[in-house]
């Protein structure tokens, strides 16, 4: 059985259980001549592909948007010989986890279908180890490529902000999101990125023999004391650093005082910009959106303008500080996520958020997640490497050296059809866990906005708002001459 037929057979047999596809395309040829000839690719449903609507895994979508046209990055992949095999499942409109009451497949982890894939580029990640396609295309606004890559045991690259064209990609939060590739290896991600970015010279970049002369910065105190790592993740990260040292890298401690302010700035930015995109439809079709999505995005409508503007200045301050730090080291290393994938019926673990991916989204720098080990349940653990803007291919080359010395990316799950799957939890606000004063204040604010929250919605939104308000409170006061963030793809 050839590669295309074997992938199709696996997708027929296992795809419904894993919830990978929203739409599948027939493959009728080997693809155009080019560097990606015959490469099978799944594309996140936020990216336009001719022949299927871009639903963004939501009933609230425009079926005529970019109808029968490819996004620019998809057109470039086709021209290089890639075969697009399907549109993949995702977090609704690229935010939040699935609502089990929505009429869409629930994406599940190929290493244990009872577990979450990470969001929001879910299907573009879980279809790779399942053998449905060779690579995936996702988008990343707050870790949405790197977190699914981490939890599904593949490699995912968030490129420099602005490196890839956004034409034909439906927006969530315009100033922080980017399209990017997922694959088994960093080398393959770099090949895909070279095609998507129209950088043909990068296809012939020679691999690094070792990491001699490469300086790897590690924010040790932040990782040890603030990242809430499991013991398995901490041990795997230490082993990964040892492997980088053995490859010739110099591992040095670096400060990362910007992490939590950037985490807050990223969240504020994403919520406000997402509400700008979806506010009118939230007013008109509130109950048609999935619950996790609407509970989060609604908050962007009540965040004060001064909080958003302060977040933009914090992003600029953080980008300047990290750009200066990355003149002294070549990459910064942390875990990509604090743990392995949580079960869908584990409410507390599903609600975990982490600053580890967020800082790099806030400043628009390239960051890459790659397998670095497994936990006690056999679930993948992931290393994150980040670099200065415009250093995407150098970043992938460092990761490639690590992967040539390790075999974590070569593991394959032993998949069987499971019918009795863990149900998906949806957060519920405890009756005694909602501040009545804050609840009433939010009720008035949403009433003024014209957003029609029900009682159950209001309890959940109030509980979520408490966390957002606390995070927004860590945005520092900065001197008046600190400018807001502006992306600089060339570095």
Automatic annotation (TrEMBL):
Keyword ATP-binding set for record: no
Keyword Repeat: no
Pfam families associated with the record: Amidase
An MF annotation (GO) of this entry: transferase activity
Residues of the Amidase domain: 32-395
Gene3D superfamilies named among the record's database cross-references: Amidase signature (AS) domain
UniProt keyword list: Transferase
Name of the molecule in the record: Aspartyl-tRNA(Asn)/glutamyl-tRNA(Gln) amidotransferase subunit A
